Amino acid sequence: MASGARRPVLALAAAVAVALAVTGCVSIPNAGPVLSYPVTQQTGGQNGQNLQFTVEPPGSGWNPQDIVTGFLLAAAANQDQVARAYLTSTAGEHWDPSPTNIYVYQNQPNVSNPVPQAAAAQPSATAAKGKKAAKKPPPTATVVVSGKIQAILSPHKGTYAVPSGSGSDNAGPEPFTLQDTADGWRIAVPPTVLLLTQPQFADDYDLTNLYFFDPNFDSLVPDPVYVPLQASASTLTNRLVGYLKSPPADWLSEGATETAFPGASKVTASLANNLATVSVTGTISEAERAEISAQLLWTLVGSGQVGSQVKAVELIVNGKPYLPSDAQANAVQTLSQASYGPATGASTTAAGRPIYYLGTDGDVYSTEVGVAGVAGKQTLVTKIGTGYTKVAVSADGKYLAALKASGELYMGPLNGPLQRQQGSGYATLSWDPTDNLWTTTGANEQIFVFRGAAAPDSRQARPLAVTMTSSLSVVGGDQFTALQVAPDGVRVALIINADELTFGAIVWQPGTGQSLGSVRIQLSPFAIYNTDSGFDQVTWYGYANVFTLGGPGYTVTEYPVNGGTPTSQMLSQNVQSITASQGQALIAGVAHNEMIETSNLTGAWATIATNAGTPVKGNSPTYPG
Known about the structure:
This protein is mainly β and about 625 residues long. The chain is built from 7 helices and 44 strands. A 6-stranded mixed beta sheet has the order 31-30-35-34-33-32, with no helix packed on it. Strands 4, 5, 6, 9 and 10 form a 5-stranded antiparallel beta sheet that branches. Helix 7 (about 285-300) links the parallel strand 15 (about 275-280) and strand 16. The longest helix is centred in the middle third of the chain and has 15 residues, at about 285-300.
């Protein structure tokens, strides 16, 4: 945390009579997207709040509670000199204002009444006879700060963890030992953690993205971490580069993502004139240099708080500038020259991506949607018969999955035939980039994946149960009512219990012999709840956004998954399903076997119709994936 950084103090200020002069006035927003605590991000990753205020040093006659609360205010405001005034002279000399962890309280923490401590036993009169009487130690007291901890932030890694289990209701009591000195009560033993309320945390920390590779090193995966808003661009550059040296220590860890930086490499970074120069030493292959360069470009230039300061990156490997094959002797690279990027799922052809849907006769059709909701040629894909309610097509367009109202699952080549799969009660469908089919059975509280759709009648098509974990503890008792895998095949968007939108990372464990191995989804700490009207469906839009269906009436909401501001639109029509793909129209299936589309949630929706103006009849529209 940068020296001199300041944040408005709201929740703790009324606890005691601490003199607090605040210039300016602010309303802290509440309810941030994709987060379970009130943090609202603005475009570019800035909160836009920079109030200047002064925390006063301790006053005469303050009791231990006043001292602890004043210290909390000063430490939260990053006013180190004022904070030291609340410590004994010895504690002040040794106090390190850089915390090992940051506790974010869900509500205003409780500062307990002081508990006097017994004085040390004094020598007896006989033992002291003929000697100078021992000096009586000063009175001491203990004040405990406690409350429900919303999250624990590790500032050295930017990781954000949510406590789990019943113990989180009253977690992390922090004791303060105070002494009664000549100047009054002072803290003799401060904690090594920083204690913040939600508004304090929201004002001083912001989300930015690190970028790591999927396990196959095909594409980059964003990993949101917290960085201090008040730190300088140079400090942030060094911190973000340091984070990339090893795989994430959060929900995207444990085999979900990888870094291209060799473990034994040494990395330094500097920033001047919007150019970040990063030096790496070690045994580094040509492929790793291109991968490292891409991670640096997307992390420093491609997103987040530091992006406004870094415009280009120069990578120095073992003292020599890294020159990509097309760099023409120019080692300074911009984002457009990155060899890798996040997987967006966007079409690579000029014609765009078709949508697939169930026709009124029950068969599967495809069409392309142009401007103003005008459909192109409608093509019969395959005849599958009646009784199906939902279809999904693999990202490469090779395979088809279909659900019946009874929850029976059928799968096979796009042009058929389809074969009934094991199990029943299936509710949702999603293909990952490697042609594995993911599905949920909400009533049975389970997620399954069918591996190897290329051979749906072989052993590889057997359903593999997915384990759910949170902070590496097993999660159970939840119903997974919707699911869709991201285009990178690493992240998954989940609707849990019909009222929680959250994300997870897919971690594969290979099997041996005839074993299919195992797979788990490690849940992210980020979540948003809609307990009033719930969520029905979720679909990815590129690598950075999802759309949900649900809320008051028929509401479609776009959520940036890195914590940006959501956009919602309530439709007057009976919306039954949605599907999205980057660069393509947002498609919704509505009542009476009609489909509508829009280019964004700030414009009007148009009925998908033929050139003659006749509505295209069908339901369950879906893009591949």
